[in-house]
Amino acid sequence: xxxxxxxxxxxxxxxxxxxxxxxxxxxxxxxxxxxxxxxxxxxxxxxxxxxxxxxxxxxxxxxxxxxxxxxxxxxxxxxxxxxxxxxxxxxxxxxxxxxxxxxxxxxxxxxxxxxxxxxxxxxxxxxxxxxxxxxxxxxxxxxxxxxxxxxxxxxxxxxxxxxxxxxxxxxxxxxxxxxxxxxxxxxxxxxxxxxxxxxxxxxxxxxxxxxxxxxxxxxxxxxxxxxxxxxxxxxxxxxxxxxxxxxxxxxxxxxxxxxxxxxxxxxxxxxxxxxxxxxxxxxxxxxxxxxxxxxxxxxxxxxxxxxxxxxxxxxxxxxxxxxxxxxxxxxxxxxxxxx
Length: 339
Fold this sequence. Notes:
Structural class: alpha+beta
Strand content: 25-35%
CATH class of the domain at 60-184: Mainly Beta
Largest sheet: 7 strands, mixed
Helix content: 40-55%
Radius of gyration: 54 Å
Strand order of the largest sheet: 3-4-2-1-7-10-9
Mean pLDDT: 78
Low-confidence stretches: 1-11, 47-53, 188-199, 335-339
Distance between the termini: 188 Å
Number of helices: 6
């Protein structure tokens, strides 16, 4: 019996329709997911591009403003070239701008305004800055008042090196503005005929110290110098006079030269013999100064010759007060005879 192909019955049609519906639902779900993913990717890409664009923009202002008691200000620091025109006070001020280093140097009196004893300092710029930083230096002789600045900025006040320091900072600020109010210190009225005593004393004290201290030190050094000089001289004179008086009391006619002395003297140099002869002539002892005058030997040479004779035990050197006494040694005088 040959088999015949089966025909699709009516009972199979609902099953086929169900399968088709499932396929359609799967396709719709996959399409939706793909669209959502693609949309998120595009949005993230746009956000990333925006962030990159924002991060690529950077404008900086860093200035220091020094204000003196007359209201004049020195402005110096860093500012972008396209932001220089945003500083309106430069229109009536002397300034130099270096495009290479982006450094500004300006001298102006356009930042301050005075009314009686009240001063107002205004600093502003009609530009946008990602990094804004200004430091104001005001003299400490003023009385600091109210400080106002843009809402997105903050400030700090300190005192350093005789100045009030107002440090103003901000990030991503549009048209920054700073306003500082201060007052002059009231001066005390001068007494007739006396002037400002406090100021005079304050000025005179350092000057007096600069004059008096060196003079006092110099005077003390001179007193010490003359004290030691005259003390030493008096001691030397006293010692020499005492020695001379003692020598006069013991003075004889001299020392007779023995044969042993003669043999020793033959080994000496001419200057050494001159010293020994002078000592023999003066009873065997003399001051070093008298010996120098007696022999005519220079002081520098005499010291070396005496050291050599002392080393050979021909003479002895001893102190007498502030002077030296040179005498012939007992070894050299052995067997001596006196007239």
